[in-house]
């Protein structure tokens, strides 16, 4: 490419280089430039980018959208000078939802702050506010959720449903169908009587961090607790001292504070399409049209004054007109790949080459250690349409539990595999190479697995003795058979695809047996001393 051509391309490249989300485009440009230069016989000037590091855990703060406020409006006409209340309800806030997708590999594109949209405000002419849109975030298959604070996430089948749509304006409070809402709706109270008796009502203090709890303003308990004391708003924390009746709420928030520790594995997403609600939106406030027919007392009839945070001593209907807050959650997401077979081995043992030869996966292969920086998953298909997923994880070395090499955090990806395939390099210690013999490799691997999680190695296993094509490898293989007992050993040459059919049959047998024959690799069954 001539200098002039590069110059004309420069603005586009500059634009693509700007934000992180165009990273894939950069890779594309680099590969294009390499392809171009190799085609034209010139040496590429741009160095290839290193493979992106897999992000397999992420901390996320999620906040559901707040509910919109109900509208306080009076419609007057020439014939009706007193007017009628016609304020619509506020809309429900949006939810934050995690969606399991096979199109996503890791959490590299996941934002740390997830906010759903708030509900729209109600308007005059009985117009309901719009519902806030949900924030749906895609996460990879095998995502495990740990809860730091907030509500425990719940699995949902479809997109979020609003229990009571804001446009479903009931003619009378008492006529609201309970079937439309799981929660018991507002209790049918004779408000007129209460107001006449001169009782002031106060709303229960809504918990800012627990919108679902604050939505309990619809519950009977909340209403019956509101008989005495001064009125206060949902945002007037600390001002109200007569909350003995509402001690339940206080004790709840205290226990929540105590529970600031992480609750592990509160949920997991294992199938594409699964959805998990992690932060729910607040309920919309009620417009004065909602109270129009139930509140007939003069003092409160057709209230014109719009409720405000400063002036909230106006009764239960005022506090109900303010939309509740969306819930807040802090989560730690962790990825645990789901595969039937996990390939475990030292760096350079040939795991990626093996995965490439048994499946259609194309993992990166290199003659240097730690070529694989992220797990690769491939599908192993049989002639009768039986298929098995195989995970190739980065190489594990002795001392990985002390953070040597890439550490041993990647072992979480084999936690859920049914079968372990230990891949050893038969030629690692041949011809003066400074590797370790295969039986020692096996011992180190089993120990690292146990260091990571006790009992992780106790599952059906087989040994893949790779690089049988190398000089002297056959002798080492014979020695390996003598030193390692209790598990089947398959000699293969991954590059030339020799021994692959036998290995595939062995994997299938082990999966179907599901460990009934107890082919488990134990430290006692590996002889390392000469
Ligand atoms: N001679 C021979 N070499 C092989 C065979 N299989 C793999 N290799 C070579 O071994 C080297 C390492 O192969 P990889 O597949 O990258 O090994 P890996 O276990 O994935 O290595 P890491 O990514 O570091 O964990 C490459 O140079 C391969 O060409 C084999 O059957 N015979």
TrEMBL record:
Keyword Nucleotide-binding carried by entry: yes
Swiss-Prot/TrEMBL keywords: GTP-binding, Nucleotide-binding
The UniProt record lists the keyword Nucleotide-binding: yes
Domain named OBG-type G: residues: 339-512
Domain of life: Eukaryota
Record domain Obg: where: 52-338
Residue stretches of biased makeup (Acidic residues): 245-261
Protein name in the entry: GTPase obg
